[in-house]
Protein: Homoserine dehydrogenase
Organism: Lactococcus taiwanensis
Amino acid sequence: MKIALLGFGTVGSGLPALIADNQEKLAALLDETISISKVLVRSEEKAAQLRQAGHPWDFVTSIEAILNDDTISIVVELMGRIEPAKTYISQALAAGKSVVTANKDLLALHGAELQKLAQKNKVALYYEAAVAGGIPILRTLANSFASDKVTRLLGIINGTSNFMLTKMMEEGWTYKKALETAQLLGYAESDPTNDVEGIDAVYKLALLSEFAFGMTISPSQIKHQGIPTIQQADVEIANQLGYVIKLVGEIVEVSSGIFAEVSPTFLPASHPLASVKGVMNAVYLDSIGMGASMFYGAGAGQNPTATSVLADIVRIVKRFKEQTLGKSFNEYKRATRLAESSEVLNKYYFSVETPDSTGQFLRLVQLFTAVNVSFEQVLQQKGDGQRAVVGIICHKISQTQLASLETKLAKEDDFNLLNYFKVVEEN
Ligand SMILES: NC(=O)c1ccc[n+]([C@@H]2O[C@H](COP(=O)([O-])OP(=O)(O)OC[C@H]3O[C@@H](n4cnc5c(N)ncnc54)[C@H](OP(=O)(O)O)[C@@H]3O)[C@@H](O)[C@H]2O)c1
């Protein structure tokens, strides 16, 4: 079974060695050899460099060389970004080739269209590596959870922000120091926006929604808030109240539909997700049959990601033999229904800057009470004589109440709402 690679970067260049290392197991599973034939690179210069470095594959610089090669059955796209990846994948599917990709941005934005094209041409489009790198979460949801109903999904699905938050929580690093170190270690790009603002997690959450809830939501329908606003005061209050702060993607189903959001979240220190540290990823599920379960592992990196890519290739080879290639990666599909905001209930943490004088706390209580929000836990930080920060965890409120409270606080000159984050309860 011949494969073409589009892109020979971090993940792409790891795939050949992984295939070689697993040759014995692959042969036992498939009674067929998998071999890489052509590799698309950007320029002749790059192709020459790679040949010189001893790589034995046929490096090409035009997609036509792959599309017109009838011996190639599987195209593995590992270039990233939207274009030309979208065009090349579409052309490969139209040419009757199955496609494996790890491109979450592309799939979250154009997955439905590409999936239709794959089905029309009776070929496969698989993308296990696009969510949580090495964790086989999509196939697990598609196969093993076929007999179960997921009611809530919580995911730590961005390693960069999790690394930064771990350092901020455990070592007292500032956001700036955490970001600089993440960039130095190669965990964050020079433009970290997608990672720190939760956009990368939004793309992955959109894909998880299809597999866990059978509903397609576009990234623009997923509310997101990033980690740059997290202050030292938030970290201290979280620590003192027994929580850790993580960037969590959540999808929950209520009677009116699903609600999806990526936001900094207070997790009880004893919650299984609180133990997910550094660049590691995890997806935590509440489901009717299984109860609570968590899938943990490396969310990125050459080997973990290439492992998921190779698993997709193996599945395609099997489907090819079974003559079931046209079957969709995910067959669970329901009409998308978005939850009413009044039905989505959560506890929230608020940090509010107040004048550092007596009587202010009572005024704050009155403001919250006016929109029917009651306090569960409060921590007043020592002020500087001028201003003080109060950390509040409220009882459960709806999205509608949250919006009213935000509006109310915005009108108050004395009180400055610094941050509010969702609080997840212990199961
Ligand atoms: N790295 C991870 O841990 C990880 C984890 C999960 C998913 N992914 C996904 O996997 C994909 C690949 O990631 P990566 O980390 O391997 O990226 P990468 O290291 O930047 O590699 C991408 C490669 O594609 C090449 N490329 C880009 N555009 C091209 C074009 N038009 N023609 C030919 N070659 C082109 C680049 O060449 P130049 O260097 O010449 O630009 C580069 O060698 C992305 O979609 C990413 O989101 C990565």
Observations:
- The mean pLDDT is 96.
- The chain has 15 helices and 17 strands.
- The domain at 147-297 is CATH 3.30.360.10 (Dihydrodipicolinate Reductase; domain 2).
